[in-house]
Amino acid sequence: MRVYFTFDSRPDLQKQLVDQFPEIEFAFRKGIVDNDLETAEVIVTYGEDLSAEDIAKAQNLKWIFVASAGVEKMPKEAIAQRNILVSNVRGIHKKPMTESILAHILSIKRILPTIYNNQRNKVWDKRGGRPTELNGSTALIIGPGAIGGEIGRLLQAFDVYTIGCNRSGNPAEYMNETFRMDEISEHLPKTDIVISVLPSTKETEHLIKYEHFQLMKDNAIFMNFGRGNLVETSVLIRALEEQQIQHAVLDVFEEEPLPLESKLWELDNVTISPHCSSHSSRYLERSLEIFIPSLEKYLAGDTNIENKMNILRGY
């Protein structure tokens, strides 16, 4: 059996796989190679490099392991037509993403950008800026799954009241209360921090509209760490220009990389993060912690593997 990685990885991680599975032929590449496509039974990808034409060439393909949470750039219909098994690494992002989100919140609350700027300019100004405190705040977490739950856990350690927003309204871990997505407007006016970690689906596209920003506090922080199409870019720019909220922290965008001509670059009340909040030196290690047990199951003929996905639904 041939397992084809469409990206290179650390030599020690490659050796770990080769030593643990001597019966498997592994191919570690930097990109798409036709010969590997045609012979691979399993493909490991970040989910952004496969096309419908690639799937057509991969006649032996039975399973795609996506070393990412999102699959919106994958040729879903072509994969579904072949009934190819798809799984991902949902859950491994929660530690680095939560640390990124918490870092941004504390940076804004404790005016770190002002402090850093004053240092560069050799300015000693004890009264510059208006630092605020995180404790006692209310955070609304849109999508309180594995990542949202970890965000809630750490925010609660700062005495933040956490409200979860999901499809069902069923209680979610580390949420003081949880409500349905269609009830979001009722809770935005009492929220200090709005954090979205939603995946990209038909239901979530442009879910947040201009009216939602109007309902937020004028000192609220809006954070999008899920997918960029949650909010139409023009709507987000309008809300920021009109200062409907205090600040937005964006790790994802409708168009990536963010175009140089985008007005978002020019606004003072936005922080632009280049879709890197989940990056970590331990990313691939955590991915293999899911892949290896799944591969063992697959070899034993068990396709009930961790994070098995419905590719057409996107999760």
Q: What are the main properties of this structure?
A:
11 helices, alpha/beta, NAD, 315 residues, 2 domains, oxidoreductase activity, acting on the CH-OH group of donors, NAD or NADP as acceptor, Rossmann fold, NAD(P)-bd_dom_sf, D-isomer_DH_NAD-bd, seven-stranded parallel beta sheet, Phosphoglycerate dehydrogenase-like enzyme, five-stranded parallel beta sheet, 16% strand
Structure characterization notes:
The structure is a single chain. The chain has 315 residues and is an alpha/beta fold. α5 crosses α7 (146-157). The longest helix has 17 residues, at 283-299. It folds into two domains: 2-92 and 281-299, NAD(P)-binding Rossmann-like Domain (Rossmann fold, 3-Layer(aba) Sandwich), CATH 3.40.50.720; 94-272, Rossmann fold, CATH 3.40.50.720. The model has no long low-confidence stretch (mean pLDDT 96). 32% of the residues lie in helices and 16% in strands. The chain starts with a strand and ends in a 16-residue tail after the last helix. The protein contains eleven helices and twelve strands. It has helices at residues 11-20, 34-39, 52-57, 76-81, 94-109, 112-120, 146-157, 184-187, 210-215, 233-241, 283-299; strands spanning 2-5, 25-28, 42-45, 63-66, 85-88, 138-142, 161-166, 177-180, 193-196, 221-224, 247-250, 270-272. The chain has a seven-stranded parallel sheet, covered by helices on one side. Strands 2-1-3-4-5 form a five-stranded parallel sheet. β4, α4 and β5 form a beta-alpha-beta unit. This is Phosphoglycerate dehydrogenase-like enzyme. Residues 102-277 form the D-isomer specific 2-hydroxyacid dehydrogenase NAD-binding domain. InterPro entries: D-isomer_2_OHA_DH_cat_dom (IPR006139), D-isomer_DH_CS (IPR029753), D-isomer_DH_NAD-bd (IPR006140), NAD(P)-bd_dom_sf (IPR036291).
